[in-house]
Amino acid sequence: ELLASASKKGVASLTQGELDAICSKFLQARQSWEESEAFLYGAATDFGIDPHIDTWPLDVEALATSLSNAEQVASLEGEDGIAYAAAKLGQELLGFHGIEFILFRDGANRKVEALRANEDHEAFKGKTVTGEQELIYATAVAGDLRDNCYRLCVSWNDDAPAAYKNRCEELEVAVTLTGSDKTYGANMLGAAEIGSTYTTWQETLSSILIAGCSNICNEVANVKMGNAHSGEDVNYIESPYSKKSFQDFIDNILSIQYSLYGGAGATTPAAKSLVSYFNNHKYSGASDIQKALEASLAALKACQAKGAFVDIYTDASVQAAMDAVNGLDEELNKAASWIVKQ
Question: Is the pTM of this model over 0.85?
Answer without folding.
Answer: yes
